[in-house]
Design brief:
The chain is mainly alpha-helical and about 150 residues long. It has one domain. It is about 80% helix and about 0% strand. Helix 1 runs antiparallel to helix 2 and helix 2 packs antiparallel against helix 5. The longest helix is centred in the middle third of the chain and has 28 residues. The protein is globular. It starts with 8 loop residues before the first helix and ends with a helix.
């Protein structure tokens, strides 16, 4: 007997926000296994950008998100990439600017922007879906911080 499950908004939100980062994280571990900091920077960029997008998408009314949501996610994503460049040059300059770390952060930020637009368009996401996306972003940011210093 085949059991068919209908995915609700919560399950779709969690799948959209976690599966891509976990799959690409596994690829990072496969290709750069001795360098855990690359995975850490990827997950930190992903988590920080996903969290920022989820917070930003709770601010405007749903009508504006329906019209300009993707454009606003793009601006938040570009801002997070710029913030990653600034922090890499200033706060984390102790270890010198590492282009691969910055690239990993930026790749995570772009993937988070794609995931955020998918949450935005998945059945007119509500505040609870944005909250769950924010929690997923915080978890990935924390995991990225742990791997980046390991």
């Amino acid at each position: 007997m085949i059991v068919r499950m209908k995915l609700g908004d919560t399950q779709i939100c969690l799948l959209v926000t976690t599966v891509p980062a976990i799959v690409l994280g596994a690829l990072f571990l496969g290709f750069f296994s001795p360098r855990y900091d690359y995975l850490g920077h990827f997950w930190a960029g992903y988590g920080g950008t996903l969290g920022a997008c989820m917070v930003w998408m709770r601010i405007p009314p749903p009508e504006r998100l329906a019209v300009r949501g993707e454009l606003e996610v793009l601006f938040v994503c570009m801002g997070c990439i710029a913030l990653g460049a600034v922090t890499e040059v200033t706060i984390f300059r102790i270890a010198k600017f590492d282009e691969i770390d910055f690239c990993s952060q930026s790749l995570g930020a772009v993937l988070a922007g794609i995931s955020a637009t998918n949450v935005l368009t998945a059945r007119q996401a509500g505040a609870r879906e944005f909250d769950r996306g924010l929690i997923a972003g915080i978890v990935f940011l924390r995991a990225g911080g742990c791997f980046a210093v390991a």
